[in-house]
Amino acid sequence: MTAYRRQLGIAIVAVAALGLAPRSPRTACGAELAEVQAGLTRLIANEMADKGISALSIALVDDQRIVWSQGFGRTDPETQRPATADTVYRVGSVSKLFTDMAVMQLVERGEIDLDAPVITYLPEFQPHNPFAKPITLRMLMSHRAGLVREPPVGNYFTPDQPSLADTVRSLNETELVYAPEAKSKYSNAGIAVVGYVLQRTQNQPFADYLEQALLTPLGLRDSSFQPRPEIVRGLAQGVMWTYEGVAFPAPQFELGTTPAGCMYATVNDLGRFISALLAGGRGPGGQVLKPETIATMWTPQFAPSGQRTGFGIGFHVTEFENQRRVGHDGAIYGFATTLQVLPEAKLGVAAVANKDFANSVVDRIAEAALRGMLAVRQGTAWKPPEATQPVPPDLVQRLPGRYGDGDQVLDLTARAGQLYLASNRHEYRRRLRWLDDALIVDDVLGYGQRLVPQDDGLLVNGATCQRRERPAAAPVPERWRGLIGDYGWDHNTLTIRVNADGQLEALIEWFAAYPLAEVSENVFRFPNWGLYDGERLIFTRGDDGRATRVQAASVGFERRP
Questions:
Q1: Residues 343 and 398 in one domain
Q2: Boundary residue ending a domain (445, 468, 491)
Q3: Same-domain status, 235 and 263
Q4: CATH number, domain with residue 459
Q5: Own/partner pairs for 379-388, CB < 8 Å, 24+ apart?
Q6: In 3D, which of 119, 120, 115, 147 has the Cα closest to residue 131?
Q7: Is there a single domain that holds both residue 357 and residue 321?
Q8: Is residue 519 situated within a structural domain?
Q9: CA-closest candidate to residue 25, choices 92, 77, 70
C-alpha cells in the first residue's frame, strides 16, 4: 500500500503537466467557449491537486453536440496511462436512469403498469409490509416505497456477487422502514427490484436486455452493465481513502444490485445520452422514448401540484440558476459521477473522478461548466470559482472548540495544520479553508458552507454561534462496552464507537458518522436522516457479552479481529 500511495502522489503532482493544454472547442461559440474551457481546465487542475484526485474526465453538451470533452491526469499509477474522454469509469447510481428508462419503454408499449402492485410481475417479492398500501414500480423508481436502502444479499458491502434473483429474494427477510408513498427514502434495493422486473418480464438477463433495448440504440458503444473485457480494458483504477490518510485501490466486484449502480461508461457516452434526452428521446438508432415519457420522468412524483423539485422517475429534479435541472449523481467504490442537464437551455455536462466520495468535487466542476455555457449563451461575463487558501495559522490555533447548542452544534478541530468542521446537522467531517475573510468548507466531502470568525463565536447563516464548553462525557455504559469495535470487510469497515458527547455512534462507509438511538439492549436505530434513514442495527453477543456480529441496515457485519 505504501508503494501505491507513493505512485498516486506522483500521478497527482504530474497532473498539472498532463492533458491540460486547451483543445479547440467544437462549437460555433468560438473564443467565448474557449475562455470557459480554459477556466475549467484551471479549476480542474486545482481541484485535482488539492483533493488528491489522480484522474478526471468531463464532457460538455450543447444540445446535439459534445462541444468539449477531455480527460485529465493518469488513470492508473502503475501504467501511468493518461485519462481521456474515452476512459471507462464505473458511474454508480447514474445507472438508475437507464434501468428506469428501459421500464418506461415497456410502459409506452402497454406491457407494464407503473401503478400496479409489483407482485403483479414478481409474485415472490414479499418484504414484510405492515401497511395497507402495496408497493408499485412508480414508488420504487421515485424512492417512495419505504424499502430498506440495501438488500441483505448482494448489497453494497459484500463482495459475494450473487445473482439478481438471489438479491431480490433476500428482501423478503426485511420489513418496510416507512409506509409506501409516505416519505422519500433512497433505495438501491428498490432499483434492483425494478431491474429484476425487466429480467423476468423480458425473459432475458438484465444486462443483455439493457444493451439491446437502450445502450445500442443510443449509440453508447463504450458502455455496459457487465464488465466485458473490451470495456474493463479501458477502466480507470478507482481510489479509496479514509479520514486517517490511508489510500488503497478500490475493489472491483459486481454488486448484486446491478441495475442500481453497476454501469460502466465514458463521459463521451454520457454526453451522447444527454443529447438523446435533449432530442426528446431520440438516439442514433431511432426513438427510444417519447418526449412526453421523458417529461413524466422529469416531473416530481408524489408531490403537490406545482412542486418543482424532488425525485421524478429515476431523475432527480432540482433548480439551478433559475432553471430546471435534471440528472443524477453516482458513487461506487473509488468513483464519483455527476450528470446534469438544463432541459430548457438544452445544455448538459457529465463528469467523473476516480476517487471515492468525491461527488462534491465533480458537482462543483459541473456546475461551473453549466454557468460558463449559460454565460456564453447569454453573452454575459463568466469566471471560474475563486480558489480558496489555507486557514491562517493563528486561526488554526485559536478557533478549535465547540460552538452553538440545540439544533446547531459545530465542532472545530485542528489536525496537521488544517482546520476541520463536524456538525450535528451533517454526517461528514469536512476540511475548512479561507476565502474572503471567512472560513469555507472546501473538501472532497463538501463545499460552500461559510463561517465568519468573531471574537468568541462564529457567524453562520446570519446567526451567531457562541463558543461553548463541551460538557464532560458521561462514563460509557457497561452494556455498550461489548459493542464497541470494528466490523465488516477490509474494503468497507463499520466502526461502532462512543463520540465526544457520550453517544454510541456508527461510522459507516468510511466517512458517515451517525449517532444511534437505543431501542433495547442489543437494538439501535440510525437517525431519520442520512444514508440509512430510520433503519436498525441489531447486535449478536457471545457468552461473554461481547458482540460477534451486527446486522446494520439489513447488512450483516462480522466483528473484525
A1: no
A2: 468
A3: yes
A4: 2.40.128
A5: 382/35, 382/36, 382/39, 383/39, 384/39, 384/40, 384/42, 384/43, 385/43, 386/435, 386/436, 387/46, 388/433, 388/434, 388/435, 388/440, 388/442
A6: 147
A7: yes
A8: yes
A9: 70
CA 325 to chain centre: 17
| Consecutive 10-residue averages of pLDDT for the chain (561 residues) | 40 39 41 91 98 98 98 93 98 98 98 98 98 97 98 98 98 98 97 98 98 98 96 96 96 98 98 98 97 98 93 98 97 98 98 98 98 95 94 97 93 97 95 97 97 95 93 90 98 96 96 98 97 97 97 98 91
Residues 6+ apart with CB under 8 A from 518: 504, 524
Give the residue numbers spanning the domain of 534: 478-558
367 plus 239 within the same structural domain:
yes
User: Torsion angle of alpha carbons 501, 553, 90, 46, nearest 10°?
Assistant: -10
| Whether residues 298 and 321 fall in one domain | yes
DSSP 217-282: TTT-TT-BSS--HHHHTTBPPPEEE-TTS-EEEPP-PPPTTHHHH--EE-HHHHHHHHHHHHTTSE
Specify the number of domains making up the chain. 3
Whole-number Å distance between alpha carbons of 536 and 517: 9
Report if residue 11 sits inside a domain: no
- Residues 507, 96: Cα–Cα separation, whole Å: 26
Supply φ then ψ for residue 38, to 5 degrees: -65, -40
Are 235 and 162 within one domain? yes
State the maximum Cα–Cα separation within the chain, in Å, rounded to a whole number.
74
- Are residues 102 and 125 part of one domain? yes
